[in-house]
Structures are given as C-alpha cells and as structure tokens.
Write a structure and sequence with these properties.
transmembrane; M23ase beta-sheet core domain-containing protein; 59% helix; Cell_wall_metabolism_enzyme; coiled coil; Glucose Permease (Domain IIA); Methane Monooxygenase Hydroxylase, Chain G, domain 1
C-alpha cells in the first residue's frame, strides 16, 4: 500500500520538470527571434549607407562627364600657352574628382563586405545556438522518458494534463527542428555569398591600387604644368617656339624610325597569323579617332602618310588593359630621350597567340618587363606623353616573331639612345581586324 503514495512524489517532480522544460524551450524560441530583428535594423542601416554612396557616385560620374566634355572642346581650339594651361588645370580637376569617385567606391565596397560578413556571422551564430538548445531539449526529454514516464503514467491521476504536456513538448521540438532546417537553408544561401564577398574584397584591393595610381597622375599633371611655365616663362611666343622645335624634332625622329624599319627584311605569312577577333578591347569605352594605315589624318599628321596603329579617345588616367594573355617584353619612355616625339610612355606585350602590341602616350605605366599578364589586366593609364594632339591611347599590333624592343642611337636626339618596340614595316598589322567588331 505504500507503493502508491511513494510513487506519487516523483510524479510531481516530473511534472515540474516538464513544465520547466516547456518554459525553457519557449524562451529559446524567443531568443531565436530577437537576433533577427536586431540584425534587420543593422542591415537596413548598412543598406541606407550603400544607397547614399550609390547616389554620391552617380553625381560624381556626372561631374566627370562634364569635365571630359569641356576637355574635348579644347581639341577644336588653336594651340596656345593659355589653352595648354587651362587644359592642364581642368585635367587636374577631373583627376581629383576621379579620386573622390574611387574613394566613394571604396567606401561602398567596405559597406558591402561588412553587410555580407555580418549577415553570415549572425545566421551562423543563430544556427549554432539553436542546435545546442534543441540537443539539450532532446537530451532532457529522453532522460524524463526513460526514467519517469512509465511511473508518471501509472501514478498520475490527471492523464489529460500529462498528455497535454507531452504534446506541448513534441510540438515545440518539432517547431525548433523546423526552425533549424530553415536556418540551415538560409545559411546555405548566405554561404553562396562567400564568392561575392571574395570578389568584393578583390575589387577593394583594385580600387585602392587605382586610387594610389590616380594620385601619382595628379602629381605628374602638376609637375607638367610647372615645367611648361618654366620652359616658356609664361610667354606665348616662347610656347610657340617650343611647339615648332618639338614638331621639327618629331618629324626628324619619325624619319629615322621609318628608314630603319623599312630596311628590315620580313616576309609576312598570313597562314601563321591568328584569326580575326582574338583580342579584346584595351579600354572599357571605345571611340576610334584614327584608323590604321593611310587615312586623311595620317597624310596630314605623319611624314610617312601612314598611321602605324589605331588611336582611341581617352581622357588622362583611363585604365588600359592587356588584350590577351601574354608577357610584358618591355616598358619605357621616349620622352626621356626625345621629349614630344613618338610613344612617350609605352608598354610592349607579346601575346600567346602570335601577336604583340604596343601602347603609347601613357601617363603611368603599371606593368614591368617580364611580367605575365592576363587578358583584361591593367597595365597602364592613358595620357598625353610623347607626340600627341591631345590625350588618347595609341595601339600598334605586330607579328610577334618579327618585333622586338631595341636600343638605337638617335641623331635627331643629339646622339642619345632611345628604347622602343621596332619591327619591319611589313610586320605592322591592323589592330581592328583582331579586335571585336565595332558594329
């Protein structure tokens, strides 16, 4: 007879344990929900900041477009010292705005990375917390079932109450399981953003490098203006004399190159050349200002009457990219030997497809001799060095087997030695044939 009263005591303890378990699991569910609301607020704040950066970027891009439009108008004006100074000043303003734009893009990318990282981290922590909580709940329930449930069922007067408790526990456990499955799915989706995060971090590195490059170009622009004022003593007559002397030297230097390259022996075998369209564009935005070979402009601008490459419109500081995978065979600056002649700052790349290219008139060279470059990799920035009538990118394409970087003494340049890519006349190719179709 003592069995019944004695067995009733564990029943009360068991019921209290079950109630506490239900309350505990309910608290877990509440804790599960709270971080989501907290994160939502943080995510919205980050998104608002990203939206603001996008708005700032749009405004800056409009300003840059206006600067470039004004710079383009200088091309229609007669060469004068006043024009050159104004052009340099306006270029500096545009470059400074370019730098501000790059910084805004850096800020936006940092916010994007923060948003992605925070989102992933919070969801991972929520999943971990829920897995631990459900494991604890299952363990506790199993212990109760194994040790007390039979006694409870036999001794409990109110069978309805105990079955309700069990049903509640089961319902909560099922809800937690569903929550964990849902969070795991969310985590899987967020893990897909890891590639996006890595891409954003790579973009951040690129933007920071670009900002440093832009700063160098601004410094060069300032130095160029100061040098011009010093050379001309801020006098128009001195400026015109400087232009005349440079033009004469440029024509003489061109003749030297033409005479030398025309003597080089080479027979072009078209069967050994790659098919059309194997190269990609060297600039993001394409506008051809002068074609290859004999054109109306080439007859006017070059003593030979022929243009050795293709010219693309591009403001100072525009990134220039490799047109295919290859190796940088040389870099240099003809202004170091003969200022105002030929390529100015240049990069020469030998591609893996049998073609080579030279980029001329750069403001800044990013590549180095022997460097392996991939298609689309930045190797320099457009500029106005060497002989130009305005900022642009010159691209020459050659048969690789017939072209090399050479050192040659120059009578035009007072016996100095110049270094640049040289090739037989027959080894020059039309770049547009190997680039994507314009139309």
């Amino acid at each position: 007879m003592k069995l019944y009263p004695d067995s009733k005591k564990p029943c009360n303890n068991t019921r209290q344990d079950l109630v506490l378990l239900i309350q505990g699991l309910a608290l877990v569910i509440l804790l599960l929900v709270l971080p989501v609301f907290s994160y939502a607020n943080t995510a919205q704040e980050l998104q608002n900041k990203i939206d603001q950066k996008n708005s700032d970027i749009d405004i800056l891009e409009e300003e840059i477009a206006a600067f470039q439009s004004e710079l383009d108008s200088f091309g229609q004006q007669k060469n004068s010292l006043n024009k050159s100074i104004k052009e340099l000043d306006l270029t500096r303003k545009k470059l400074n705005t370019d730098m501000t734009l790059t910084q805004k893009k850096i800020d936006k990318t940092n916010l994007t990375i923060e948003n992605l990282s925070s989102n992933i981290g919070i969801k991972q922590n929520s999943i971990k917390t829920n897995i631990e909580s459900i494991s604890l709940g299952i363990k506790k329930t199993n212990e109760l079932e194994e040790s007390n449930i039979l006694v409870t069922l036999l001794s409990e007067n109110n069978f309805t109450a105990i079955w309700n408790d069990i049903d509640n526990i089961t319902a909560i456990r099922e809800k937690l399981r569903d929550s964990i499955i849902e969070l795991k799915q969310i985590k899987g989706e967020l893990e897909d953003t890891k590639e996006e995060t890595i891409s954003a971090k790579n973009e951040l590195t690129r933007l920071k490098s670009k900002l440093a490059d832009q700063h160098k170009i601004v410094v060069q622009n300032t130095n160029e203006k100061n040098k011009l004022l010093k050379q001309t003593k801020n006098n128009e007559a001195n400026y015109q004399k400087l232009l005349k002397d440079r033009l004469a030297k440029k024509e003489s230097f061109e003749k030297e190159l033409r005479d030398y390259e025309s003597q080089l022996q080479f027979t072009l075998d078209p069967s050994k050349l790659p098919t059309s369209g194997v190269l990609s564009w060297p600039l993001d935005k394409i506008y051809v200002t002068q074609m290859f070979g004999k054109t109306a402009d080439s007859k006017r601008l070059y003593a030979s009457g022929s243009h050795s490459g293709v010219d693309f419109k591009a403001g100072v500081g525009t990134p220039v990219k490799a047109m295919a995978d290859g190796t940088v065979m040389g870099v240099g600056d003809t202004d170091a030997t003969c200022i105002g002649t030929s390529f100015g700052k240049w990069v020469f790349i030998k591609y893996n497809n049998g073609l080579s290219s030279a980029y001329g008139h750069l403001s800044l060279v990013k590549a180095y001799e022997g460097q392996k470059v991939a298609r689309g990799e930045i190797v320099g920035y457009t500029g106005n060095t060497g002989h130009t009538t305005g900022p642009h990118l010159h691209v020459s394409v050659y048969v690789s087997s017939a072209t090399s970087v050479q050192k040659r003494p120059s009578t035009t340049c007072e016996g100095r030695v110049y270094t640049m890519p040289l090739a037989p006349t027959a080894a020059y190719l039309d770049p547009l044939y190997y680039l994507p179709k314009l139309f």
